[in-house]
Design goal:
α3 packs antiparallel against α4. The protein has four domains: 41 residues; 94 residues, conserved putative lor/sdh protein from methanococcus maripaludis s2 fold, CATH 2.40.420; 93 residues, Efflux pump adaptor protein, beta barrel domain (Elongation Factor Tu (Ef-tu), domain 3, Beta Barrel), CATH 2.40.30; 141 residues, RNA polymerase II/Efflux pump adaptor protein, barrel-sandwich hybrid domain (OB fold (Dihydrolipoamide Acetyltransferase, E2P)). The protein has six helices and 23 strands. The longest helix is centred in the N-terminal third of the chain and has 36 residues. Helix content is 32%, strand content 34%. It has a six-stranded antiparallel beta sheet with strand order 2-17-21-20-19-18. The protein has a six-stranded antiparallel β-barrel with strand order 3-12-15-14-13-16. It has a four-stranded antiparallel beta sheet with strand order 4-11-9-6, with no helix packed on it.
Amino acid sequence: MSKTLKLATLLIASTVVIMLLMNGHTGFILNAFAADDAQTDINTKPQAMPVDVAIVEKQAIRLWKEFSGRLTAVDYVEIRPQASGIITEVKFVDGQFVNKGDILYVIDPRPLKAIVAQESADLIVAKNTDALAVKELHRAKDLFRKNMISQQVYDEISNDKLVADASVKRAEAELSEAEINLSYAYIKSPVSGRVSRAELTHGNLVSAGPNAPLLTTVVSSESIYADFDVDEQTYSHYMQGVTSEQESSYKSPVELRLQNSESVYQGKIYAFDNRIDPSSGTIRARAIFKNPQGKLLPGMYARLRLGSVSEEKTILISERAIGTDQNRKFVYVVNGENKTAYREVHLGDSINGDRIVNSGLVAGDIVIVRGLMRIRPNMLVEPKVSAKVKTKAVKS
């Protein structure tokens, strides 16, 4: 385009503007400029990104820790003979449930019955001798008052009475011992539970003493122990919630599941050991469970969950709200200007897809729970609190 043509075009445009101004069309020109400025503002103003958020709330929940352990019997008894002789009866079936006091074995009682009869007779003799000594002493007292016997004779008669009394007591003790030995011929179960197999059967000769043979065993089944190792940190946290009055009877609940089974047994802590194992940094704990059906057997492997003594006020957030920055964990919170802010958090245990927040958040904070890959610090967002998202973020 030539300079002459450019100049002509400029003159024509200027003339049009002057004519519009002379005819009162200034509004048209200003509206044109305003529309152009508005379009520029629309193109430059940042758009708020919609995000799902959860409002942080403190929930009263019971904290749980998982461990593995083994089941052990509350009462385990090895049955051995306390009397010598031949086994004449076995009064149980292998694996049978027996009650406390049930007879398991009978050892030939006849020799022991004979001893009891002999000791009974000796007691009768001792009592008769004592009765005669009483009469002799009464007569001696009367004669001594009349000076018809000497002091020496009276003392001898008095001593005979004391000897007769002692003989009665000795005979009673020997009879009691014989009766106890006779009771040993009838071997009874000291606890209620399930009996093992008979190691020795009818006709075997057994002897009492340190080397007495094992006849069978009985394990109680009404209740059962679960032994497991607890780390030092969990033990310290647990004991913070136990008062001195509660220490003798721990109230913390324990849940037990067997391997490859979803059945849950409810129990409680029975006791802790008296020392921390320095090699492992753990302490042995023992829980007790009811076992009315006898399904829990000593030696079984078990998965255990130890609950805190009481419910604690805790902040929970969804796992999806947590990001990882090298070795740090963080979340994005929304401030009062609807802009995002980076917040480092320190986390605790996982509970049903949520994580405990030990520090970094307070009640009332608004946390973004989805789409962290698209979020950057100081970004303008449009928070949307979904009831479903909020519930999942704070459930216990």
